[in-house]
Design brief:
By secondary structure, the protein is α+β, with helices and mostly antiparallel strands. Among the domains are: 18-72 and 418-686, 3-Layer(aba) Sandwich (Rossmann fold), CATH 3.40.50; 284-413, 7 Propeller (Methylamine Dehydrogenase, Chain H), CATH 2.130.10.120. A hairpin with a 7-residue loop joins strand 6 (103-108) and strand 7 (116-120). InterPro entries: AB_hydrolase_fold, Pept_S9A_N, Peptidase_S9_cat, Peptidase_S9A, Serine_Peptidase_S9A.
Length: 690
């Protein structure tokens, strides 16, 4: 008897036409029904796709395990962060051998003191398949820690409080909160938090909670009535104020402040919201420093006294607007100001001495890198903590003496397994897009990799929300580089690498610039022999997954394979549904399709709506059943439609993590299994299986 090889059965989602009519225009959505999360037929379809993926990739099953172990083997399992001092304690995070999650620790007074465990997340996570802790906030008396706990991956955190002296978890448990937005008042008894709408998942109410009381009695301090605004909350660095921030996604900002010593008082508006005005605030002694785009596209720095914030005529300019320099970061110290300024796509750190008015910049000396102001909770210091990384330099933490200009490396990410930075090199150049815009591109590869068109290359981008894709180091990426891949980041419009206009020219009715930039960079990489079309891969996630969907509709022949993670591909339908989490807050990014000009424009590029009967590249699509940002049904519908319409025999694979959300699996090692899947998919297609 012989075992005949069976052909994997293609999953097939049932066609159930739904008519969707807007502005007199009707679309037929055959897979609209896949949004029924609790429908057994939906779950059966997702499981069938998962099974199909495993059958197709069965020949590289062992290779996936090898890649996972290889990437895991580069991670120093027993590791800890560089401690920072806040109040009377040094705080740090460490990982234990085999531990998926961090252990948050502190030591009183000295690094030689006995360790106190704040939270051991490994122990806390044991009962759950998914677990995440967010927003640790220690009270002024340093005896209590507030934190958020998410056990589903919907980013709906339950607020809890632990007594750090006794180890007791207080009975106070407040569900549906914003995980990173907690603040203690100075009395060590009062907590402020943001409650989220269970339907839209938007934070919309600020409450005051007295420790030990029934959360049902919590006092509503502020309600955001405009659902286009996102909210944040926290204690300012000076500790004097608790701040509530309402942000309209790159359109307007409004701060509300309450003195921490007056928790039963009312929040006062720093400066009322005004369309087109974005600002953020740092408090120092009796002065506020304001990073603002008031009459300054790329932002400028102003200062104002505490009692004059509402009077912009009282604001004094500290750093003027510059058309080619984007003011991105700000930190304030007793004697210094530190600015993160982005020019030609790269961050420069600028130090200003508040006493003698002198200034200088830090020099980094590499063509492509990422630098940023670190966590600096202490005002009364001349030491700046900053982070640095490049495509060939592992993440590094430095302490910098702002007076003597002495730079001290405190820690560099350990990369086990014989990593040698001298074997790799990076490049940075500009590619002219079809409309003349010059797009920065960062590339890294092994020095022995040929640049004659024969090497495979992975091109990555995001290109939305003004989020700049930084050319930083990745130890997992070595598994591609060491097998002959080049890795390229296209810093396309929609990000903010080249300033605010770079973002503005890649959103709303200019969104197609984002897709065109990516395709034009791909053409350049092929024309200049970095790779060839049969060895070029593209990758993006979330809004970068929209990018993937758009470019495979525009020019599918350019790519051997595409990886789209949690892709936002059903743009029009999602943006018409204001009950879906985050939709209303996105109108200033994509447009509101209830307005016809935006509907027409979005419809012209929405990946799901523009699937055609034609050949597509090999594709791996990944999603999470509990995703709160891009609902699982978007990628599921997209794959179902592609499977029904595409004319090629290339691989089309959908993987749904049935226990995770937008960020994928929790835990530092579990997440590597998803990366191993992505890499095995690509490497297999170019014949590399070991």
């Amino acid at each position: 008897m012989t075992n005949a090889q069976t052909t994997p059965v293609l999953p097939k989602a049932a066609i159930k036409p739904t008519e969707l009519t807007t502005h007199g225009h009707t679309r037929i959505d055959n897979y609209y029904w896949l949004n029924e999360r609790e429908n057994p037929e939906v779950l059966d379809y997702l499981k069938a796709e998962n099974d199909y993926l495993e059958e197709i990739l069965a020949p590289v099953k062992d290779f996936r395990v090898k890649l996972f172990e290889e990437m895991k083997g580069r991670i120093k399992q027993q590791d800890e962060s560089v401690p920072y001092k806040e109040g009377n304690y040094y705080y740090y995070t460490r990982f234990i051998e085999g531990g998926e999650y961090p252990v948050y620790c502190r030591k009183p007074g000295s690094l030689d003191a006995e360790e106190e465990i704040v939270l051991d997340v490994n122990e806390m996570a044991k009962p759950y398949s998914y677990y995440n802790v967010g927003g640790l906030e220690v009270s002024d008396n340093e005896e209590l820690v507030a934190y958020g706990e998410d056990t589903v991956s919907r980013r709906m955190y339950t607020l809890r409080v632990k007594n750090l002296k006794t180890g007791e978890i207080h009975p106070d448990a407040i569900p549906d909160t914003e995980g990173g937005s907690y603040a203690w008042a100075a009395d060590n008894q009062t907590l402020f938090y943001i409650r989220k709408d269970p339907q839209t998942l938007l934070g919309y109410r600020v409450y005051r909670h007295a420790l030990g009381t029934d959360p049902a009695d919590d006092v509503l301090m502020y309600e955001e009535t405009d659902n286009q605004y996102y909210m944040g909350l926290g204690r300012m660095k000076s500790k004097k104020y608790i701040a509530v921030v309402s942000d309209h996604n790159g359109v307007a900002t409004e701060y509300r402040l309450l003195e921490a010593t007056n928790p039963t008082g009312e929040f006062a508006v720093f400066l009322p919201r005004e369309k087109g005005h974005e600002y953020d605030v740092q408090h120092l002694e009796t002065t506020f420093y304001v990073r603002t785009n008031w009459k300054a596209d790329n932002f400028r720095l102003m200062e104002v006294k505490e009692n004059k914030t509402n009077d912009r005529s009282a604001w004094k300019e500290v750093i003027p607007h510059r058309p080619h320099v984007y003011l991105e970061q700000l930190d304030a110290f007793k004697n210094h100001l530190v600015l993160g300024e982005r020019q030609a796509g790269l961050i420069n750190l600028r130090i200003l001495d508040r006493k003698n008015k002198q200034e200088h910049y830090l020099d980094f000396g590499e063509p492509a890198y990422v630098a940023g102001i670190g966590h600096n909770p202490d005002f009364n210091t001349n030491i700046l903590r900053f982070g640095y990384s490049s495509l060939t330099t592992p993440g590094s933490t430095f302490d910098y003496n702002m007076d003597t200009k002495e730079k001290t490396l405190m820690k560099q990410q350990a990369v086990l397994g014989g990593f040698d930075a001298s074997k790799y090199t990076s490049e940075r150049f500009f590619v002219k897009s079809r409309d003349g815009a010059k797009v920065p591109v960062s590339v890294v590869y092994r020095k022995d990799t040929p640049k004659d068109g024969s090497a495979p290359l992975l091109q990555y981008s995001y290109g939305s929300y003004g989020y700049s894709t930084e050319p930083g180091f990745s130890s997992t990426r070595l598994s591609l580089l060491d097998r002959g891949f080049l890795f390229a980041i296209a810093h396309i419009r929609g990000g903010q690498e080249m300033g605010r206009k770079w973002y503005d020219n890649g959103k709303m009715l200019k969104k197609k610039n984002t897709f065109n930039d990516f395709v034009d960079v791909s053409d350049y990489l092929i024309a200049n022999k970095y790779t060839s079309a049969d060895r070029l891969f593209a990758m993006g996630g979330s809004a970068g997954g929209l990018l993937m969907g758009a470019v495979v509709n525009q020019k599918p022949e350019l790519y051997r394979g595409v990886v789209a993670s949690v892709p936002f591909v059903d743009v029009v339908t999602t943006m018409l549904d204001e009950s879906i989490p985050l939709t209303t807050g996105e109108f200033e990014e994509w447009g509101n399709p209830k307005i016809k000009k935006y509907y027409d424009y979005m419809l012209s590029y929405s990946p799901y709506d523009n699937v055609k009967e034609k050949a597509y590249p090999n594709m791996l699509v990944m999603t999470g059943l509990h995703d709160s940002q891009v609902q699982y049904w978007e990628p599921a519908k997209w794959v179902a439609k592609l499977r029904a319409m595409k004319t090629d025999t290339n691989q089309l694979l959908l993987q749904t993590n049935l226990e995770a959300g937008h960020g994928g699996a929790s835990g530092r090692f579990e997440a590597l299994k998803e990366i191993a899947l992505e890499y095995a998919f690509m490497l297999n297609l170019v014949g590399i299986r070991e």
